[in-house]
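Help! Submission page says 'invalid entity' but I think these are all valid:
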Amino acid sequence: MERRKTYDGCEGPDAMYVKLMSSDAHEFVVKREPALASGTIKVMVSGPGQFAENEPIRSIVERPLHILHMYFTYKVCYTKNSTKLPIAPEIALELVMAVNFLDC
Amino acid sequence: MASFPPRVNEKEIVRSRTIGELLAPAAPFDKKCGRENWTVAFAPDGSYFAWSQGHRTVKLVPWSQSLKNFLLHGTKNVTNSSSLRLPRQNSDGGQKNKPREHIIDCGDIVWSLAFGSSVPEKQSRCVNIEWHRFRFGQDQLLLATGLNNGRIKIWDVYTGKLLLNLVDHTEVVRDLTFAPDGSLILVSASRDKTLRVWDLKDDGNMMKVLRGHQNWVYSCAFSPNSSMLCSVGASKAVFLWNMDKYTMIRKLEGHHHDVVACDFSPDGALLATASYDTRVFIWDPYNGDILMEFGHLFPPPTPIFAGGANDRWVRAVSFSHDGLHVASLADDKMVRFWRIDEDYPVQIAPLSNGLCCAFSTDGSVLAAGTHDGSVYFWATPRQVPSLQHLCRMSIRRVMTTQEVQELPVPSKVLEFLSYRI
């Protein structure tokens, strides 16, 4: 049986989700609270309205953003656990610059 | 004299949570020495913990059972009842599933311990493999013990039997370490001022003698990619060796007294050394720069005082597996946990007469051995590392500092990757 859930949207300051768009137009819809692990996203989302709600993060391409999403989930779920998040060195270099911007 | 920088209030520092302790059994006769626990070690797969109880014995404790006992029975480990609970009938199938406790009598005071397990792909360096007595398979776990008379005995952990006796050092074998790449290369550091490299896949053939120390060698550590070896010793010595050609890469200068412990970070980008001059230094092993200094005595001692009996010798240092924390033991009866970006400890715990420490294989527990042969365990400070740090470790595992400097990234990111914040 298919369950239909209605989700809150991504619009507005109380939205449960935020939409992250990469520079090559991939969209990630992630839960708001884990995404606030990134200092920059926190500022963008809850700041005094200077950023448009769905402004794309231009400097980041899709692949690192995917790992970013993994990291948010990882951080919430594994705060007490010792599971490792594997990051290949080739991706790590692109990722480190993106993450430096996002401060997380 | 203070143990912390003046701006830090000692009472505000968090105390670590104790997990348990293994207390040495009462001695049959009262001896002043011979009870010390000079090294503690965990098996690479986390199955065993080696406890050198002094009086020449090493006890191999199945680690996960021990941990369960600590959590069930509170802090005191009831070792007698746990060994009775192990199944009496020990079938072959059972041997692999339930690790058994073993007590090994080494015949002489044990100064160093190391666990080694082999990876079958790593070929032995010797060509004539068919002449070897031992074929170290995938499920073989070895324990090397370094003794007072200079001998090294290699034991099989699962059966507790003696496999090899390596004889060459003329003095106490103070430290032992296996190469982390599974090739069963063992390096021993001795008070006879040399380090020796043994190939255990070649029946313990001694491949090389590393000479260069002018005085006792206290400790040695391999970098995680097995390309470098750090050896530290008396007279302020910190040496880095290239383990492909067995030549000395460089000497690291900076300590004022004997250097007694060293450890690499899990990505090999940092080297921590502990010295009797009351300090722990964090170095960049690729260019010899000192990146951080962890002091244990405040105000910091003058070089003359640091070079003598200052009552605050740092005995051991160990890097945690997350690459962010360092644990140190000093003579002021405290264990300190440090973050690599702060110069004061984030957690402390009381410990008298601590001599050695080691993190467990999963990094969640720190074990410290003391002068009376006991071992104490604490929970390590845990936090989810920042994604930046995870990326940094992933990059630094494969790149040296010089290679990192060549990367086309902004300078702030370069500094971060070189651990220079």
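Support: the input was valid. A stray whitespace character was the problem, and the output above is from the cleaned input. The longest helix of chain B spans residues 63-73.
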